[in-house]
Amino acid sequence: MKDDRKEFGANAESLAAIYLEQQGFQILERNFRVGHKEIDIIARNDKVVIFVEVKAARQLRFGHPAERVTRKQRMNIIAAAQQYVIDNMFEGYDFRLDVIALYPKEGGGYTLDHIEGAFMA
Questions:
Q1: I need a labelling partner for 76 at 20 to 30 A (CA). Which of 22, 50, 98, 119 fits?
Q2: Which DSSP helix (H) or strand (E) runs through 10?
Q3: CATH code of the domain in which 92 resides
């Protein structure tokens, strides 16, 4: 069961990365880690670097997937993003913390919501 969830999450992250590339973003990192802190996707478009948490759900009975980003996850993403910016010296760039949520739609398939600026540092 755990491997199935892990594979589902990895597939969701791949779909999110494809979506971002279709929107003109260049993927800089996937599964970027600083200690135990992780950012699913880091991408750049023009002068904006985005740090993306991907959340996926097979059903909506527990609410929208984006609502499942916990305070602890937000704090970890912010800390990892700060370290990434320091290590890569992005001068003149704006930074944004986004969430991409994937969830089932009626009739099959999935809906992708890209929530720009989902939370603040």
A1: 22
A2: helix 2-22
A3: 3.40.1350.10
